[in-house]
Specification:
Structural class of chain B: mainly beta
Largest sheet of chain A: 5 strands, antiparallel
Radius of gyration of chain B: 35 Å
Order of helices and strands of chain A: HEEEEEEEEEEHHE
Largest interface: A-B, 46 and 24 residues
Distance between the termini of chain A: 85 Å
Distance between the termini of chain B: 89 Å
Shape of chain B: rod-shaped
Strand content of chain B: over 45%
Number of helices of chain A: 3
Number of strands of chain A: 11
Structural class of chain A: alpha+beta
Helix content of chain A: 10-25%
Largest sheet of chain B: 9 strands, mixed
Shape of chain A: elongated
Oligomer: heterodimer
């Protein structure tokens, strides 16, 4: 009798697993493929963070982290470029200006800035440089000319397979920073400020 | 022969077009967002009653905060002093750390006799007696007069404090513009308001006397001072 009872208990143990619920864990992977040359870019804007690490947007234009003496400035976004071919990134920008509602205040004082791209190559280069930084200055003219072309291809040869992942940092240039901290303290109106930056990734023959 | 050449040209063009790959582009836009907050604005208005023994006036005494009434109780008008003119009724002081268009508005009501069965009002004049001239200091600058300068970069323009109001009720306005205030600075504007008993103005109604003709008694007038900034 005791043996029978023991056998029943041992046999019943596996059955308990039927009634214990285990939450499934799943992940997803996006398979990216293309025909011929493929290039795409994604930008992830970082919401304003004030604890732990000061980053994101919107930011106070008077804060120290966005002034010209801060290197590389305030982290505002992440970006990634997926490509299987050589490419260049053409950047066009507008100066930062005070907003009236949803529109730019056309009479506002233009504030110029500097963006720094800090990135990691998704593949090793011939000289093992896989991390680098590029910097560009915002346009100081009113045309729509491309301000700067970011060519990552100096660091690799052969096939370009994989991604470039990086961070974008913002800081005002020295002239605008001086204005913000000086005359602009009273001259610049309170309210929202914005600037638009357009990135065009284009393949290179 | 011409047909062969034409066909060869057509073939070569087709091959060329097939060999030219379209340039692939991808465009993304990033809007960079910032903001600027308004500085903590501090605007203070202080009114201080004046005491004049010759007029035997009694006031509320002490400094009064912004928008409060200032009461001036005139003494026994049977005294009829000859030097009623240009007696200080009260002084004011405006202190601020912001810029803008400022306005001081003095609204007066008639002198009204205290007590008695009959309401008796008398007229008087209220006007600027004086205002201070700028004195520079590290922390605060006093302004007065047109085009007075405050701070290293600041300026005061369009100071307009003229005129005398007569035959209460009425109002007296002072306005000025403060611009480009240096950081960490405040500006101060002081002035004194004089009361002049209007002995000559005629009564505008049965209840309003020229002071010289007003019945004896103690009279009281209320003056409201408002500070506004745009």
């Amino acid at each position: 009798m005791k043996k029978l009872f023991l056998i029943i208990i041992i046999a019943a143990f596996p059955m308990l697993s039927i009634f214990s619920k285990v939450d499934p864990i799943s992940k997803s992977v996006v398979i990216q493929a293309g025909y011929g040359k493929v290039v795409s870019m994604e930008i992830d804007r970082i919401p304003a963070q004030s604890t732990g690490y000061i980053a994101g947007m919107p930011f106070n234009i008077e804060e120290s982290f966005v002034q010209s003496n801060q290197d590389p400035g305030r982290l505002i976004a992440h970006f990634s470029v997926l490509s299987n071919t050589r490419y260049e990134m053409a950047i066009t920008s507008t100066p930062m200006k005070h907003m009236t509602g949803a529109d730019f205040d056309e009479n506002a004082y233009p504030l110029h800035y500097e963006l720094t791209f800090e990135y990691i190559l998704g593949y090793g280069s011939s000289n093992n440089d896989i991390r680098d930084r590029e910097r560009f200055y915002s346009s100081r003219n009113d045309t729509n000319d491309v301000d700067w072309v970011f060519d990552i291809n100096d660091y690799s040869e052969g096939n370009y397979i994989g991604t470039v992942n990086g961070s974008i940092y913002f800081r005002f240039d020295s002239e605008s920073s001086s204005y913000i901290q000086g005359e602009g303290k009273t001259a610049l109106p309170a309210g929202n400020y914005a600037a638009d930056v357009t990135f065009e990734i284009r393949t290179v023959e | 022969m011409k047909k062969i050449v034409f066909l060869l040209l057509l073939l070569s063009m087709t091959l060329m077009l097939a060999a030219i790959e379209p340039r692939i582009t991808s465009t993304e836009t990033l809007r960079i967002l910032g903001y600027k907050v308004s500085p903590d604005a501090v605007n203070e208005l202080t009114i201080t009653d004046a005491f004049s023994e010759s007029l035997d006036t009694v006031g509320d005494g002490g400094a009064i905060s912004m928008d409060e009434h200032v009461g001036v109780l005139f003494g026994d008008v049977s005294q009829r002093p000859s030097d009623f003119a240009d007696q200080t009724a009260f002084s004011y002081r405006v202190a601020s750390n912001t810029i803008g268009n400022y306005e001081l508005l003095f609204t007066i009501e008639p002198l009204e006799r205290v007590g008695g069965s009959e309401v008796i009002r008398a007229s008087y004049q209220l006007g600027n007696l004086s205002y201070s001239f700028p004195e520079a200091s590290d922390d605060s600058i006093e302004i007065g007069g047109v085009d007075a300068t405050i701070g290293p970069n600041g300026s005061v323009t369009n100071l307009d404090f003229t005129g005398v109001i007569t035959s209460s009720p009425g109002n007296l306005k002072s306005s000025w513009i403060v611009d480009n205030l240096a950081e960490g600075h405040q500006w101060i504007h002081r002035g004194a308001i004089a009361v002049t008993i209007d002995k000559s103005s005629a009564a505008s109604n049965n209840l309003l006397y020229a002071f010289d003709n007003a019945p004896n008694g103690r009279y009281r007038a209320l003056v409201t001072v408002n500070l506004s900034v745009n």
